[in-house]
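hey can u check if this looks right to u? its 397 residues, i copy pasted from the old doc so theres a chance i mangled smth
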Amino acid sequence: MTISRASGAAGSAVWEQQERVPQSVPGAGEAPPLVRLAGVSRFFGPEAAVNRLDLDIRQGEVFALLGASGCGKSTTLRMIAGLEPLDEGRITMGGRVLADAQTRKSLPPERRNIAIVFQSYAVWPHMTVAENVAFPLKMRRVPRSQRRARVDRVLQLTGMAQWADKSATALSGGQQQRVALARALVYEPDLLLLDEPLSNLDSRLRTQMRKEIRRLNQELGVTMLFVTHDQAEAFTVADRVGVMAAGRLEQVGTPVQMYDHPETAYVRDFLGRTLSLEGTLTWSGTEGTVHLLAEAGVAGGRITPLSDRELASLDGERVRVFFRPEDVEILAATGALGPNQVEATIVASEYLGDHFEYRVDIGGSSGVLDAPRRSRHQVGDTVVLRIDPTCVSVWAI
């Protein structure tokens, strides 16, 4: 359950961002940070693409930077790689300074032992798969005998050994992306950066490659920073996720923490779908109740019990209750409403084979709900929505 305050006129409330607390020093059982960004900024003209960013990436984890286009996630990745200068702040890896804006120190990309896989596969058409993968070793003057052994190993790991002597351009998109991964991993980087690496693949291959990236992380223990705009990619691949907006980190946490306990309105609305109802909260001893407002068309309805003791501070205040569609059950209207039940009207219906998708109107507020195939309702039907009170978040207005 989340509590946040907002200010502004009714109907156009402006949500206040909670104060961001710097990430804490790792506790017992946590891996130490491999990469640390401290107050990092990058300006393009007067605009800050990245604005005083603080971030720790732990040794051995997959960390996903998630956000909409233009939020600064790829710029952040490029600064870590050394492809973009810092205007403010400092980046270290393993205690070694990669870049420091104050001293103007910046290691060149080739001295950072960082590998990158971009959205485009960038395989060399005149080389075989094995030659593509061996090229970084050749540039680092690794002896030929060692090159072959390392190339063979990484091709086995990525499932590309049988195509070693095949022209890289004769491969499918998914196979070319595996070649790009193998080429990035062959020289055993300290950090692997992945910048929207699955965007050019179809949905089936994307699902397959998510599992592949996760497997490689677990088998090799290589630390990964995965940049994406796709929530499903971030949640399935990463140990931890950071949601970015306007060059800043809104929140960092595990996928479960981010989805179930959003700390800002932006994170709440960016991750998944939500529905909301307005009401007044009352607190009585050990639990709270939100009494829904008459103007919402749900007079007499209530959401209860709410057990988060922090809600006691909102006793008597106007609040908005947010909940996810998957925490709502659609029932036939049969009579009087009980706690956590509100009436709604079906305004649109789509049959998607394995389930129905209904757009509902709840006293002037609309949302989309999924329902199993056996749950059949017609447009215009009045239904009852049963909301799970343990899954709501309460936000002060």
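Residues 41 and 51 are 5 Å apart (CA to CA).
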